[in-house]
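Backbone-to-sequence.
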């Protein structure tokens, strides 16, 4: 157990989480994730505040590692049951509206960043993902990725089209790539997923009229400032920001869960935890009463 510091208010604030019960930590997470009817999200402003507070959240999916969920925050409870008539459910409808509106207004990033699942990311955190996924690459560097065998030919052709003209709606992009044939749908979707996960492109709109379609743009053109900031971040600084912001919302985790959730090598997670603990941003190697193992706990 980490020994408690003495004498100063700062030492008291950073007292080891081992002195708190597992129930207290779980309650802190429930409060941050808004698993309470009295704190449920009712507006776009509240939703933006929620994303900015937790740093990253899913839309509907529940990550086993512990990630905030917009739908849970909208209905104000954990693990809500999917309704039979989801199209007429108020909670589903508001969640769907918010996950469209916030990214369309460039207030958050929306894309498949965690385990191929869509998440909303606060703009102050997003540069960390840019640094980890793209490093210092610019949009034109997709050709380097293709020549190195790390980008498929189909994805390269779609990038060629978006470099020439963007934004584009799905049908126009498929036409440019000679992929309107229904038999090429899977190939197109795989390539678009490849480009999204590589942070080359971003979905900027879901259009419902006159027909349903997505609009796509180059990430640099849609969010130029966060991308530019990400190119300036070192990998170590990006991991530090990512873990600190995540734990600020989730409150606790373990190094193994952090590594699994963000796809980071265990050694890099361990080094980041050490750096953050030395700065007082979190507490490491914490024993929590009632739980087995050791935890990393936010100092907030």
């Amino acid at each position: 157990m980490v020994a408690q510091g003495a004498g100063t208010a700062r030492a008291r604030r950073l007292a080891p989480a081992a002195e708190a019960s597992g129930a207290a930590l779980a309650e802190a997470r429930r409060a941050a994730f808004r698993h309470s009817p009295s704190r449920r999200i009712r507006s776009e402003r509240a939703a933006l505040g929620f994303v900015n507070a937790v740093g990253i959240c899913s839309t509907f999916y529940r990550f086993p590692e512990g990630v905030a969920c917009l739908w849970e925050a909208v209905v104000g409870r954990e693990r809500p049951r999917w309704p039979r008539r989801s199209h007429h459910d108020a909670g589903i409808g508001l969640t769907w509206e918010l996950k469209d509106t916030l990214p369309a207004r460039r207030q958050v990033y929306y894309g498949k960043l965690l385990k191929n699942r869509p998440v909303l990311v606060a703009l102050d955190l997003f540069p960390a993902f840019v640094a980890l996924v793209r490093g210092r690459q610019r949009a034109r560097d997709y050709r380097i990725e293709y020549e190195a065998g790390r980008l498929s030919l189909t994805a390269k052709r779609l990038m060629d089209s978006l470099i020439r003209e963007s934004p584009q709606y799905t049908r126009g992009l498929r036409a440019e790539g000679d992929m309107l044939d229904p038999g090429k749908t899977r190939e197109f979707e795989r390539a678009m997923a490849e480009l999204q996960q590589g942070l080359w492109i971003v979905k900027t709109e879901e259009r419902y009229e006159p027909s349903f379609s997505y609009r796509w743009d180059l990430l640099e053109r849609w969010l130029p400032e966060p991308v530019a900031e990400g190119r300036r971040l070192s990998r170590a600084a990006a991991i530090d920001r990512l873990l600190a912001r995540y734990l600020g919302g989730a409150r606790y985790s373990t190094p193994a869960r952090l590594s699994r959730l963000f796809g980071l090598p265990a050694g890099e997670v361990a080094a980041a935890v050490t750096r953050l603990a030395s700065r007082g941003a979190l507490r490491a190697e914490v024993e929590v009463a009632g739980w087995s193992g050791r935890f990393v706990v936010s100092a907030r």
